[in-house]
Design a protein that fits this description.
The protein is of the alpha+beta class and 410 residues long. It has 6 helices and 20 strands. Helix 3 (132-160) packs antiparallel against helix 4 (166-192). The termini are far apart.
Length: 410
């Protein structure tokens, strides 16, 4: 009995110990919870929200970094216009007429009626040679002609009465004609004493003064050049002859002349002459145009720029020259699509035109939008912020024709 009582006591002790341990732990946890203040929970929530925000911000920046930035570019639309097909050349001007005024009779110059370098018209007096000897010769010839006419009249009366031989009558007729011719020749020599301008033009520097003895063997007294219109002489390279022959004789063939410094407006003239042979030494063909020059702005032997217009290209597609870029694959432009992304478009450029425009023969359509500036940082599919391109004022053709423009044709 005693043994059983001890065993039961031991079991009771073993089962009572865990219960007291759990009770003590619960009391300890409850006491610990009562010691954490509420502001600690609030701080924990704030810190968690801040960390979440930073994580989201970092991920958003990574997404933005993977997308290309929007590039600002200047754009314009492809326009259409009638433009010329041309060759740019260098030429010189030549006087339309050149006359060296010379004395037809011998004598002393009595007067000079012009100023060196002045404009003269046809018929304006220039010099007067002493007319007195020629006036006397004319008077003598007229007197002899009158006498021979009287003699002829008398011979006609005698012939009607058949009292004069036929030979005497024929001699009288011949003498009358000869004296009349002598009188007319004397009149011509007298007229030669009054030297007049044979053309409209500008007179040069005189070679003789009043008091000089001149004659037919004397050199030119003065030179007169016709300046309105004026010739424009230029050459065409042998390589360009097929293109020239294609349009030669057409209604749109013109010759445009202007100065390299742009001081005068381009002047449109007609093609006057083109040679029928290639010059052996230079491989060029000579050509000449006739250019209006009412203000005498173009002078003989002056170097000029020449645009040899061969034809007119109807409804050509034009873009600013800056829009055309060149890569290893050839010329191209960036075309802006409706969603403001760009497309790389290969093109076939033609000639440059007035206003710094370039003809696009193939690759774009009228009305499409192309990038003019800002292409350096672009790639196909890039997003852009388009801004309207400010058109530059047109330059004068030499302006851009300091060298011969390239001709692009199939």
């Amino acid at each position: 009995m005693k043994l059983n009582t001890e065993v039961s006591d031991v079991k009771t002790l073993r089962h009572g110990a865990p219960q007291r341990s759990r009770t003590s732990q619960m009391k300890h946890t409850r006491a610990a919870n009562q010691r954490i203040p509420r502001w600690a929970y609030l701080l924990f929530i704030i810190l968690a929200a801040f960390v979440s925000y930073r994580i989201l911000q970092h991920r958003a920046s990574e997404v933005r970094a993977t997308q290309p930035p929007t590039r600002p570019v200047a754009v314009t639309q492809v326009v259409t216009k009638d433009v010329p097909v041309y060759l740019d050349e260098i030429g010189t001007c030549a006087a339309y007429e050149t006359v060296q005024v010379q004395a037809q009779v011998s004598g002393v110059i009595m007067t000079r009626q012009f100023q060196d370098g002045s404009d003269v018209k046809q018929g304006d007096p220039l010099f007067t040679i002493d007319p007195r000897p020629y006036q006397a010769a004319l008077d003598q010839a007229k007197a002899q002609a009158a006498l021979d006419q009287v003699t002829l009249k008398r011979q006609e009366d005698l012939r009607t009465r058949k009292v004069v031989s036929q030979q005497d009558y024929d001699t009288a007729v011949a003498n009358a004609q000869k004296s009349q011719a002598a009188a007319e020749a004397a009149q011509v020599n007298l007229d030669y004493c009054y030297i007049k301008s044979p053309i409209n033009g500008r007179i040069g520097l005189r070679n003789v003064d009043v008091g000089n003895l001149v004659g037919p063997s004397t050199g030119a007294l003065v030179t007169i050049q016709g300046l309105d219109p004026i010739y424009t002489d230029f050459t065409v390279a042998e390589n360009d002859l097929p293109l020239v022959r294609k349009y030669l004789g057409g209604p749109n063939v013109k010759v445009e002349t202007y100065l390299a410094d742009g001081s005068i407006k381009p002047r449109m003239g007609e093609l006057y002459f083109i040679d029928n042979a290639v010059q052996p030494g230079s491989g060029t063909v000579r050509a000449r145009g006739v250019t209006p020059n009412p203000d005498r702005a173009l002078w003989p032997s002056e170097f000029v720029r020449v645009r040899f217009i061969l034809d007119v290209l109807k409804d050509a597609a034009l873009v600013p020259t800056q829009a055309v870029q060149v890569s290893q694959s050839g010329p191209f432009v960036f075309v802006v699509k409706s969603d403001n992304t760009v497309e790389l478009r290969p093109v076939t450029p033609g000639q440059r035109q007035q206003g710094d425009l370039t003809v696009i023969e193939d690759g774009v359509k009228v009305g499409e939008t192309v990038v003019v500036t800002g292409q350096l940082a672009l790639s196909p599919g890039a997003k852009v912020a388009p801004q309207q391109y400010a058109t530059q004022p047109p330059a004068t053709p030499e302006r851009s024709a300091a060298a011969k423009s390239a001709i692009s044709y199939e």
